[in-house]
Each structure stands twice: as C-alpha cells, then as structure tokens.
Amino acid sequence: MSHGDQAQPLSITAGELAALLGGTLEGPPDLRLTGVAPIESGGPGEVTFIRAASFAKHWAESRCSAALVTESLEIPGHDPAVRALIRVPDADAAFAAVLAKIDPGNHLPPRGVHPSAVVDPDASVHPDAAIGPGCTIGPDSSVGPGSALIAGVHIGKGVTVGASCVLHPGVVIADRCTIGDRCLIHPNAVVGADGFGYIPPTDDRPAIKIPQIGSVIIGDDCEIGAGSAIDRAKFGQTRIGDRVKIDNLVHIGHNCDIGDDCILCGRATLGGSVTMGSRVMLGGAVTVADQVTIGDNARIAGGAIVMDAIPPGETVAGIPAMPARTALANYAAFGRLAEFMRKAEKSLTKLTRAHDEQKPVSADTTEPS
After folding, report:
1. Residue 364: which pLDDT band, with cuts at 50, 70 and 90?
2. Does residue 254 have an active-site annotation?
C-alpha cells in the first residue's frame, strides 16, 4: 500500500527516457533529466511536453532541457546539439507515463483498523484493508483487500467497497450502495443520497416526499471528484459504468445510467433518469434534462443545456444544445447582430424619409386652360 510523501526524483538520461517510451530521440542521448515542468517556466534538467503548435512556439524560448513531442509536430528553434526532443505518438500519454514514474501516491493509513474508527460487528473488513481515524462502517458492509478509507469516511449499512479502492476524507457511501474495484473517490463526495423526488404541493397540502428505496452501483476503475453527488434510485439502480471519470462538483440524479469510459467535467448536472452510452464526454457546467438519452461517443461542449436526445457520435453546443456547426454559426451571427441592427435602422430611416418626402399625386390630370 502506497504512502505518499514528496515526488520521487527523476534521474534518467534522454536516451534512456526515449527507450523507455519507445520514442525517437533528436538530441544528445546522455543529457540528464532530473524533473518535470511546464514549457514556459521549466529550467535546465527538466522535461516538458509539446502536444500542439500552441506549445511548440514556446520551445525556442524555453529553458527546459527536453520535451516529449507528438510525432507530427514541427518544433521551431530546436538545437539537437544542446537540447533533446523525444518524438512519441501521443505526448500527453507519454508525459502521463513519466508522471506515473515519479508519482508519490496518496498518504494512506497503515493496514488494519484505527482505534478511533467504529466498525459494526456485522461488517467485514479485509485484513489487507486500511481503515483510518474517525471512519465508520455500518452493519452488513464489506471493505475489500487493499482498499483504504483515509479518515472520516462513512460507510452505511449493506455497502460493498471492492478491492484496492481509495476513499478520501469526508466521503459518504450511503446504505445499500456498491463500489467496484480500484475506484478513487475524492474528499466529501456523496454516493447514495436520496434522489430528489417529490409530489408537488397543492393549495391544500405541502409537497410529498417520494421514498427513494433504490441503490447506486459504481463500476470498476472509476474516479469521483471532490464534492460530487450521485443520488440513489427511486427504485432499482443508479448505475455508473466501468472506468468513468467524474470531476469535482458533478451531480448525477436518481436512476441515471452512465455507460463505460464516460468523462464528466466539473459542475456537470444530470437530471433524473438520464441515459448515457459509452465514451460520452460532457464539458464543464453542462446541464442534461430529465430522461434524455445521449448516444455512444457523443461530445457535449461546456455550458451546453441538453433538452433532447443526442444521437451517437454527435458533437453539440449551445443553449439549447444543437449540432456544434450550427451553434458556432449562430454565435458568429449573434456577434454581428448589433451592427446589422444599426444598418437596418439607418436603411429604414432613409426609406421612411424618402416616402414622407414624396409629393402626393392628384387624381385630376387635366391641363389648365
């Protein structure tokens, strides 16, 4: 079990790093690399990455010693006698591999149950699990091997936490919910709060709460960001597929069904009973109305409000969401609207003036005698 501290030092030559990543080296193979840094602020001995032309233009002025470069990019200002470029198919993926090499991991409690934790006698905690200070685990719940509840985590009744999960401080997993294997849940996330279900009030009675008796099922290899909330189903399940990545402050309403490999960016909000296919990407602050279906591989631009079904593979943007090309054309037209209105008003004024200045035509056309 990892106990995070400071980042592990990087000590590798450019040639060794190129071999490790399967990349092509353009520069001195014996150049020693000791750290990672952004291209604008890095210094000698540090390696950065260049994924696009917008990064490449900074290389000439950068003080970094090496860069991981997506193969197809041209890099102006490179001197292979002094600095190194390592060309790889995907600079982002290669840089992620470097970061993984020096990642200190999370600081986790030791295996076993901390004296201040409260574990119900009917709960099951694997001997290889770590239950940190102030955690509570309810009856009929289980925590799998290699999992860690760092501190102040609440596990309700009838909960299953799989193997090799990490639950950060303040996480709440409410009754009857299931967390798959190798999940990472960040501070103060809540899985299994009641879905928002009420019969609206009338003149002679208040709103009536609808009991939310379902559960939440989280798949394997998921990540749930800080402060996010996934509501339990009214009945049945709210389901999150495998390898779903959920950013901070995301809200997923009751009875949603999220397919595998979806990515939901910060402040995305899903109404009840939304269905998402696999590999859907939601930008920041996207809102999806109740009962909407979004097809596989769809992309929703940040800030969009989705009111209707999105077909598979579609990219949408805007309020309400529409095909991205249409939305961009509308935005461009809106930017010219004020100028268009000024010109239209001027033209209308000229036409009105010309009309008013016309002399009336007499019905009597007889020439005077």
Report:
1. low
2. yes
Q: How confident is the model at residue 334 (pLDDT cuts 50, 70, 90)?
A: confident
Say if residues 264 and 245 touch (Cβ distance below 8 Å): yes
Residues 132 and 80 in one domain: no
Residue by residue, DSSP assigns 64-80 as: -SEEEEETT---TT--T
Question: Do 310 and 223 lie in a common domain?
Answer: yes
pLDDT score of 9 = 78
Catalytic residue among 78, 154, 251, 254: 254
Distance of CA 55 to the CA centre of its chain: 22
Residue-number span of the structural domain to which 306 is assigned: 112-325
Helices (H), the chain: 14-21, 53-56, 91-102, 324-335, 337-357
Query: Based on the domain organization, do 135 and 188 belong to the same domain?
Result: yes
The enclosing domain of 47 has a CATH number of: 3.40.1390.10
φ and ψ of 328, to 5 deg: -65, -40
* 107-151 per-position pLDDT tens digit: 899 999 999 999 999 999 999 999 999 999 999 999 999 999 999
Same domain, 310 and 208: yes
Rg (CA), the chain: 30
Specify if 197 maps to a domain.
yes
